[in-house]
Write a structure and sequence with these properties.
Amidase signature (AS) enzymes, 11-stranded mixed sheet, 16 helices, 11 strands, globular
């Protein structure tokens, strides 16, 4: 296989279909790459080499019998460690679940297996998906392949770093307030948050039930669309799963790859720019908007005034739901148990276990959420945050009445240095400023690589948002912009990554 592992999932799928390569060969090459670079990147918490190769061999045998399960049968994938995987550890980046091996698969994982994708392993993440830098993992931080002294975004930095470092051609992430899109922006990868309910949450260890959504992490928009076609669709085991027929996202991405934006009306969100936004990030964003105009799009400015309150509302709603969800980690049923000396009560055991098992950021959000839900404060904080959420949804509805998609930079800055914001939670939270509104309203969004910022030569991202159920629009716009950018750059942006120079692939 020429090109080592620096290829797309779509290209690998074509090579498999032509009989030019085997799944075992592809999977072994990626396992070799993990062995070469992951000691420095730390994208993975668990690598299942034996299992992945066995699944790859099964794929090759199926193909030999003419029983291919789909276009991605045989293409390996990495899975964020917040999704239950039967027979493989699922820790959510936390000591409190260290060593836990689920007896079942999340629906997303089950669909990957059914489609024949070998699972390389589980990727690192901020503990229980609480963070924007993957520095809050109990097992150590993941590093950005562009610059190993910088963060890969969060909470799904492991999935984004694995794809950016060519350790996996595909990955699954989860997005509660931007945890797929923001890592995509700072690692030069593609990240998609589907419409809420478009991908099953069954088996996804919940951070905030009304916000969490699993989605693709890839190197191209077409790869993301192909993966979305595999994992999406109704699941009767998830009460929030949408019952409807979805269009082919693969076809939407292919339609957009012509680069023609004629007839598409694009709204630039006024509130997601200005003070605090890195100049180089805004330069790349404005250049991308100009490319869309040249490709035939009509671009207008759109005001969404409630977006300025999204961050505050989110950091009341999310901690409140997290406080409730994490109450089940009580040392009584599964996970870590710490027993104090003497004759401790059940409450003493719970207190000691939660103190030892949860990290500082998790404790911070549990305390904040419990306070927001407490008697006397519920209406003043949580209730008001839900009202803001309604206003944000109304802003989206008003905007989409006049435009097809809304666009903004994905994140205000490029990747910051490890440790730079660990002691300043508010500075950390601001990284999700542009991505949070989509989660509060349940609409789909994509982050596409947007070029390198002038100040530091690091990648930035371009975000496109569409109405709920119109995920095909973000694929069309994302693929069009990707095609326009590729023509400008002369090749994929990831070819310019320098953090792992000198490592063979």
């Amino acid at each position: 296989m020429s090109g080592g592992v620096e290829t797309t999932a779509a290209w690998l799928a074509d090579q498999l279909a032509e009989g030019a390569v085997t799944s075992v060969d592809i999977t072994q090459r990626h396992l070799d790459r993990i062995g070469e670079v992951d000691e420095r990147v730390h994208a993975f918490l668990h690598v299942d080499a034996e299992g992945a190769l066995a699944q790859a061999a099964e794929s090759d045998a199926r193909r030999a019998r003419g029983e291919v399960r789909g276009p991605l049968d045989g293409v390996p994938i990495a899975v964020k460690d917040v999704l239950a995987t039967r027979g493989l550890p699922t820790t959510c980046g936390s000591k409190i679940l260290e060593g836990w091996i689920p007896p079942y698969d999340a629906t997303v994982v089950a669909r990957l297996r059914e489609a024949g994708l070998p699972i390389l392993g589980k990727t690192n993440m901020d503990e229980f998906a609480m963070g924007s830098s993957t520095e809050h993992s109990a097992y150590g931080p993941t590093r950005n392949p562009w610059d190993l002294d910088r963060i890969p975004g969060g909470s799904g930095g492991g999935s984004a770093a694995a794809v950016a470092a060519y350790e996996a051609p595909l990955a699954i992430g989860t997005d509660t307030g931007g945890s797929i899109r923001q890592p995509g922006a700072v690692t030069g990868t593609v990240g998609v948050k589907p419409t809420y309910g478009g991908v099953s949450r069954y088996g996804l260890v919940a951070l905030a039930n009304s916000l969490d959504q699993a989605g693709p992490v890839t190197r191209t928009v077409l790869d993301a669309a192909m993966l979305h076609d595999v994992i999406g669709g109704h699941d009767p085991r998830d009460s929030t799963s949408i019952q409807q027929e979805w269009p082919s996202f693969t076809e939407a991405a292919k339609a957009g790859s012509t680069g023609d934006m004629t007839g598409v009306k694009v709204g630039v969100i006024t509130e997601l720019s200005g003070d605090g936004w890195q100049a180089g990030v805004m330069n790349r964003f404005n250049e991308s908007v100009e490319l869309l105009v040249k490709a035939g799009a009509e671009v207008v400015e759109v005001s969404c005034p409630s977006f300025v309150h999204a961050l505050a509302a989110y950091y009341l709603i999310l901690p409140a739901e997290a406080s409730s969800n994490l109450a089940k980690f009580d040392a009584m049923r599964y996970g870590l148990r710490v027993t104090p000396d003497g004759d401790p009560s059940a409450e003493d055991v719970m207190r000691a276990t939660r103190d030892a098992g949860f990290g500082d950021e998790v404790k911070r959000r549990i305390i904040l959420g419990t306070y927001a839900l407490s008697s006397g404060y519920y209406d003043a904080y949580y209730g008001q945050a839900q009202k803001i959420r309604t206003l944000i949804s109304r802003d989206f509805d008003a905007a989409f009445a006049s435009v097809d998609v809304l666009v903004s930079p994905t994140a205000p800055t490029t990747a910051f240095r490890l440790g730079e914001k660990l002691d300043d939670p508010m500075a950390m939270y601001l990284n999700d400023l542009a991505t949070i509104p989509a989660n509060l309203a349940g609409v789909p969004g994509i982050s596409v690589p947007n070029g390198l910022a002038d100040e530091d030569g690091l990648p930035s991202g371009f975000q496109a948002l569409a109405p709920a159920l119109a995920d095909d629009r973000v694929y069309r716009v994302g693929a069009a912009l990707e095609a326009l950018h590729t023509a400008e750059w002369g090749g994929p942006l990831l070819d310019k990554a320098t953090g792992l120079e000198g490592v063979s692939s």
